Amino acid sequence: MLKINTQGMSLLEAFLAAVIFVISVAAVFTTLIGTRRPAVNNDQMTTAALVAKNVLEDLRSKVDALDYPTGNLSSGTHTLTGQGPSGLYNVYYNVTLLNALDPNSARQVNLTVTWPDAVP
């Protein structure tokens, strides 16, 4: 017949149980931290799309044949800042003439939204 130990756990068994517990908790925390980063990035990407859309709509609404070359659509780089749900953001947009010989020609706008305090 097997002899049953009624005196409790040995020091080795207690140590092994503690190591298994610590590894399990570390795995859970690593998983939770790993899911936070994509959620923040998705929120920032959604906000960036909305901010970019609003900036472009604002630029379109200010197009006037009389001040087209000199307003917010003048050639060059422009910077805007704002506050959104993901924190402070910067909007950089570059306006280029599609026909450099005609100052009243159509323009191309390249726009970038960044967060200076973004989560890495």
Describe this structure in words.
The protein has 120 residues and is α+β, with helices and mostly antiparallel strands. The protein has a domain at 35-114. It is built from one helix and three strands. It has one helix spanning 11-61, and strands spanning 76-84, 87-97, 107-114. Strands 1-2-3 form a three-stranded antiparallel sheet, with helices on one face. 6% of the residues are buried. The mean pLDDT is 80.
Topology, element by element:
Elements: H1 11-61, E1 76-84, E2 87-97, E3 107-114
Antiparallel strand pairs: 1-2, 2-3
Short description:
42% of the residues lie in helices and 23% in strands. The chain is built from one helix and three strands; from the N terminus they run αβββ.
